[in-house]
Amino acid sequence: MLDRTLKVLEFTKVKEQLIKHASSSLGKEKVENLFPTTSYEEAVEWQNITDEASTVLRLKGNVPLGGIFDVRPYAKRAKIGSILSPHELLNITSTLYASRQMKKFVQDLVEEELTIPFLEGYANRLFILLDLERKINFCIGESGEVLDGASDKLKSLRSQLKTLESRAREKLENMIRSTSTQKMLSDAIITIRNDRFVIPVKQEYRGAFGGMVHDQSASGATLFIEPQSVVDINNSLNETKFKEKQEVERILSELSQEVAVEADSILENIAVLAEIDFMFAKGAYSQKIKASKPKLNNSGYIKLLKARHPLIPKDEVVPNDVELGRDFTSIVITGPNTGGKTVTLKLVGLFTLMAQSGLQLPALDGSEMGIFKAVYADIGDEQSIEQSLSTFSSHMVNIVDILKKVDGDSLVLFDELGAGTDPQEGAALAISILDEVYRRGARVIATTHYPELKAYGYNRDGVVNASVEFNVETLSPTYKLLIGVPGRSNAFEISKRLGLNQSVIENAKNHISAESNQVENMIASLEENRRKAETDMEEAEHIRKDAEELHKELQRQIIEFNEKRDRMYEKAEQKAASSIEKAKQEAEEIIQDLRKMQKQQYASIKDHELIEARKRLEGATPQLTTNKKTTTQKSANKQKLHPGDEVNVLSLNQKGHLIDQVSKDEWQVQIGIMKMKVKEKNLEYISRPKPVETKPLATVRGIDSHVKLELDLRGERFEDALLRVEKYIDDALLAGYPRVSIIHGKGTGALRQGVQEYVKNHRSVKKARYGEASEGGTGVTIIEFK
């Protein structure tokens, strides 16, 4: 990609945002060197790496990336025999510890059966150098000092130093405490000059102490003298310090040699940690801008759903849908210079660069991006009233350069094409340039305020008009892109809103040709019809989804009901057969007993009496009979039913709520997420919600008078879903519902868990549970209000 294109499309600003999420200088270096790839396979792999990092961050919250330093120079110096400083060795051991922690973190994720192929591959390349890490930590303290225990010799030398320092101080303290010498001193202190202990002596008493003069005050009145009595001690002290320094250097040299042995492994760890830090920086940035992974293609097809420019504040950005490269390969955005057109242009270009750099896009799931070999952009500050020839010339230089290179694998962005010269010539030139780029097979988006280009999209196959919606009431653009609708000037409406006399406006309209008026009226009609069509389509799509879900749920419940009924019949038959068999056995035993009695009493009991006794016993045995009175024929509760009542549907043995009475003897009932019509005789009254206290209109303003008994959150983002749940609970409480359902689906469980935690902590919720099998299972949360 050209550096100018990266700058114009503000890719460098995206990198400035991204670099803030890197944990080390290694990750920051990777961000600084990030450029879009032109390889489809590489772009797909980069996207998968970022998505893996984003998934881990979502599940774990954070990653152990602290304590990583760029120790590549230290390892390379150690390899050529240099002695590393204590602080350099500390940075090495800190990085080794970070490598060990990262490897353990990844192994834990693998044990949890999380699919992380890229992270697992990186971790397998990490070397665990525990011996080197321990040796350095044993010898070097946290503050960068070589510890006494680094060697026995160093420990002994430092013990000697303490002894010698104590002897020197003791001798000098005796001198400064002596009353005979105090008058000779400028101050009763012991100090150090040239690494030797000295005392401050007045100039006139120089000869009283002997020894050596190491320094004097600025005025010359005080001399810093090393008395002869401590010269030998100071000599021993300096000699021991020299030996100590040699021992410290020997220890550092030994540790540096250990680093040199493992230098290649350390360099490999640095390369791996840089990749890991980089991938999690991209993952964290995705979370920051609420981005999703785009589907990539090699056919130049772009489809963005609710795309948001990442550099515009969240409370100001307007999401837009953009599609290019299938039904049409060129978009011409027409309309006045009221803003919004350039934003759309930059949005598509920046998203292309981000997708090809492995960055996720702030757009809804399902967005697609084509991979282009080159992105060309001619975007400048041509939005001023006056444009000089030099401005036109500079843009033509860019356009000429683009036309030399553009081909079928290019994305071309023209802002205010043909501006800066005579309108007729500029429009003609713009049409010719667009035709040439289209002929080359490139994908192109161009903005222009020339009215001549409004007809261009209608007269060319593969080209579509578009405009940025303008709100005449507020005199500002809404920044909503309208594909298929050319822009109109709105000059008369704006002038009228600003107070221009109506007669002047009418006079101006007389100067416009009939054809121009017809075109403007046609565009206005198109805008109105489009808005209505979008509203109708959204409503129809919602109804279609509801019907589809209802159909699936009804089918599932019918199958479940039939299976349950069959199981109950089978169980009842088995129980009845068992009871009959048991009764027959008992009867046979009674007969046997009677026969024995007959024999014992010598025919005192007649045979016909035995037969009669058997009949009586058989008549007493339980029989498998079908209860002709079914549950549907139970007498209905005499309680008069009202919408909102909780009832039992006798045929299904399921609880539900009445929505509305559809006929004299039939009601619409809500059971879980399923709505169905049920005969009144098949309903059994259970309870009625308590009446809600009437509140002033001001407190319920804006609440929809018809609140559904369920809220469908499937496909929603986590934060948006919780906002909808909060509003829906308020609406349901105002509507007086005793119980409602929230459909969140099963998915990964994040949304489901978030909804459960929110509603359980809500002050007005009495009980929250997952739905039963007939109510949607764990994909639905049932709420009962207090």
From TrEMBL:
Bias kind Low complexity: ranges: 625-638
Coiled coil: 147-174, 509-600
InterPro entries: DNA_mismatch_repair_MutS_C (IPR000432), DNA_mismatch_repair_MutS_core (IPR007696), DNA_mismatch_repair_MutS_sf (IPR036187), MSSS (IPR046893), MutS (IPR045076), MutS2 (IPR005747), P-loop_NTPase (IPR027417), Smr_dom (IPR002625)
Single GO biological process annotation from the record: rescue of stalled ribosome
Enzyme class: hydrolase
SMART domains found in the cross-reference section: MUTSac, MUTSd, SMR
Binding site for ATP: 335-342
Protein name (database record): Endonuclease MutS2
One Gene Ontology molecular-function label: ribosomal large subunit binding
Provenance organism: Bacillus mesophilus
Residue span(s) of domain Smr: 711-786
Record-listed E.C. numbers: 3.1.-.-, 3.6.4.-
Family in the record: Belongs to the DNA mismatch repair MutS family. MutS2 subfamily.
Lineage: Bacteria, Bacillati, Bacillota, Bacilli, Bacillales
Keywords carried by this UniProt record: ATP-binding, Coiled coil, DNA-binding, Endonuclease, Hydrolase, Nuclease, Nucleotide-binding, RNA-binding, rRNA-binding
Assembly: Homodimer. Binds to stalled ribosomes, contacting rRNA.
Signal peptide coordinates: none
Region (Disordered) residue spans: 618-639
CDD domains: ABC_MutS2 (cd03280), ATP-synt_Fo_b (cd06503)
Function summary: Acts as a ribosome collision sensor, splitting the ribosome into its 2 subunits. Detects stalled/collided 70S ribosomes which it binds and splits by an ATP-hydrolysis driven conformational change. Acts upstream of the ribosome quality control system (RQC), a ribosome-associated complex that mediates the extraction of incompletely synthesized nascent chains from stalled ribosomes and their subsequent degradation. Probably generates substrates for RQC. Endonuclease that is involved in the suppression of homologous recombination and thus may have a key role in the control of bacterial genetic diversity.
Domain of life from the UniProt record: Bacteria
Residue ranges crossing the lipid bilayer per the database entry: none
